[in-house]
Structure formats: C-alpha cells, structure tokens
Predict the 3D structure of the following.
Amino acid sequence: MSVTKKFLYVNRRPPYGTIYAWEALEVVLIGAAFEQDVTLAFIDDGVYQLTEGQDTTAAGFKNFSPTYRSLGDYEVTKIYVEKESLEERGLTLDDLQHLTWEDEDDDWAEKDSIKLVSRSELAEIMAGQDVMFNF
Amino acid sequence: MKLTIQVNEGPYQHQATDSAYNFAVAALEKGHEIFRIFFYHDGVNNGTRLTTPPQDDRNIVERWSALGEKHNLDMVVCVAAAQRRGIVDDGEAQRNGKDATNIAPGFRISGLGQLVEGAIQSDRLVVFGD
Amino acid sequence: MALLHLVNKSPYERNCLDTCVAYCREGDTVLLIEDGVYAAAKAGKAAEKLSGLDVAVLGSDLAARGIAQDKLVDGVKVVDYGDFVDLVEAKDKVQSWL
C-alpha cells in the first residue's frame, strides 16, 4: 500500500544570498516523482523568491527563477504566499511571477497556482499537514 | 517512533550537526528507530574523512561514523549538494573524473529522493539547520 | 494536529521567533534550542514574546551559554534531549523555523 502524505515545503529565505532557496526547489522537483500531496508556502523573505525580473548576468551566477514556472508541470498547484510578508516588503501579487498549472480534469484549463493567504490562514494550513520541510 | 533527521549545516560552523547528533543519540537510547539521517546543503561536509579538528574538542565526523556503525544507521549525503561541495566517493570520482575520494566511513552518497522517501516512511522528520 | 516548533536562533538576531509565535496555535509547544534559548531570559525584551505559549528550553544549551535557570521566564520548562525526543513523539509534526 503506498502512502500519500501532505507535504509542506516552507520557504522563508530570499534567493541568491544563500543557496537554500535553490536547493529547496530541487527537493520539490525531485519529490514530485513520489506523488505526495504537495503545498509550497512562501513566508517572510521567502516571498522574494517569486519576484519577476530577476537578472543575474552582472552578478555572475545562474538565474534559477524560471524554474518556478515549471512547478505546474510537476503537479505543484498549491503555492501559498503570505499576505503580511508581501505587504511588509512593499510588494503585491503583480510583483510576483504569474505561476500557473493546467487542470486536466477541466479540459486543461490554465489556473493560477499562487494564492495569497493571511498568516492565520497559513497557520491553519500548516496545522493540517503531515510533514514540514525547512531549509 | 521512526525518525528521519535532516542536517543542513556542516561541522563546527553551526551547532546544527551537534544538535542533530545529540538528538539522534537520545532517540536511540529511548529505543526509537532512525530510518535515515540525510545530510543536505553544507551538511554534506559532515561526511568528509579529511577533517583534523583540535584534540581537545569533539570530532564531529568520527562521532557520526561511530554512531552510524554502532547502530547500523543509514547516513546519506545528498549527491547534488556533495558534487557542489566536493564530497566524493569511488563512484562519484569515477563518474566525474576526480583524482581522489574523501567520504567518511558510514556515509553513502545518494539522491534527494532518499530525503523524500525518509519523510514518507518515517513518523517524524526533524530538521536541524541554520 | 499539534506542532512542535523549533527555534534555534536568537530573537535579537533573526525574526524566526516572531514568525514562529505568529504561527503558534492551541496545543502547540515551542522548544528553544541553540541560540534560540536567549529568548527565555526573563530580563530580555524578547521574553514578552513568549507569553501565553507553552515553551520549553534545552538545558544543555542554556548551560553552554551561562544562562542560569533562575533567570528564565516563568513557566518555561527546562528539558534535556530525552525530553526533546518525547516532545517530537507527543506532537504530530515538527516545524523548524530556520
């Protein structure tokens, strides 16, 4: 009997200053093969990972932000961004990449993966998970 | 209780690996099972046998190797993180054309799937990091 | 489902404790380890952040940092690694606020 657990990947760090954001994403991508019930949460500086317009040319390291756009293909459809963290940083949904997934049960309709949730809503979501990954 | 422990930081730089080790020892003393210890990010540096720490302090790498041997633990170093940071076993040396290996006894290099599998198969995942 | 929250950083260095506290719910326990134990010092400004929560602090990390047990916030439980293991088992899952 195969087990399906509710996995929550918690992201609280910005990209590039440290490797955690990228190596966390690598776990999500590899983890997709295990067909668990996956949710991603972006809290505190983690919201910066999803911003549009990242250009790492002058900085001299790989821009991995396009990888977030492929999450839909890896069956990651639940991406929660904490409202308070966005607001604290002067950001809105428009500052973030527009991430989508295709719902095969709805004639492959393209749907938004990112949902803005409040801290208390996300705490409730967290309470309902089986495993939390932190990096 | 079946446990998977994740160690995100290397020896000495952060206390994470010490905390993880002490937790593992306590869990084993209480008769719990450690399904896997997964070393990720700089945590892979716990798996090099080339450290020479000062004599008057704990030897973190040897301590892990000894615990692993005593309890037949599955101590996995993530291959992608290991490649980035230069933790090498015979297989990796051959595959990537390296002229040396440095993996410590009791550790094995394997994929991120091992962490995910650990999380699925265990009752609890406990993460130690920065 | 109850959570065991792990906080390992000083409240004066990082916002981990603040975020942790915002995510705590009825039945959860916060375990302070490593540099996180500084939050449990009664005289510090961060002490008030712990009010209303079920808080435990790792004794060996207190001792390492020279924090006397009589200098802690009232109601905080001093635990050892064995208790840490018991807490992991007693709660449904662990959230490490790294």
